[in-house]
């Protein structure tokens, strides 16, 4: 590729691992676009604990709230 050329657009269907493709191709001038299934559920980041002195007992949360593609309320 020459300087000034547009980036390459890689378009994939829902069966491909989009985050892995993006990570593997991160050093190339490629834009990764992967379709996601409509019944897919993603998790938001974990909210910070209320305060350092009032830490809840047990293991810290790994996931925040859910984002469900098929549910407009989320």
From TrEMBL:
A Pfam match: DDE_5
Keywords, comma-separated and alphabetical: Endonuclease, Hydrolase, Nuclease
Gene Ontology MF terms in the entry: endonuclease activity
UniProt region (Disordered), positions on chain: 42-74
Annotated ranges, domain Transposase IS701-like DDE: 3-74
Protein name (record): DDE superfamily endonuclease
Organism (species): Labedaea rhizosphaerae
Organism ancestry: Bacteria, Bacillati, Actinomycetota, Actinomycetes, Pseudonocardiales
